[in-house]
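User: Please look over both lines:
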Amino acid sequence: MPRVPVPPEVDEFLQLPNPAVVATLRPDGSPHTVPTWYDWEDGRALLNMEDSRVRLGFMRRDPRVALTVLGSGEDGWYSHVSLLGRIVSIEDDDSLADIDRLALRYTRKPFRNRDRKRVSAWLEPERWHEWR
């Protein structure tokens, strides 16, 4: 399936280290949401988590997810973009390169907790919407 393009202004918004919330589906179909760091590259979103996180099991069972990225400027959360799609890749982050990438993006420092196993997941949007 080809990647869903976003207009330049949405791409620019997603390039920023804005706060975000990821939603996964529990086995009973109800939503599970948590705040998360993300990065945006080539029309996909990178997510990273400890391998013990409940959301990882939900992603593996059902790859359908949503990521809502909230504005952090003067409009705050009144400006947001939601990506709805699927997790297309889940891989171990043995070198911690992906979590360092996210930590540097959000805190300008490498990730400090180096003793837990991490996993990276790539979200490929199938559709999106914005409110700005």
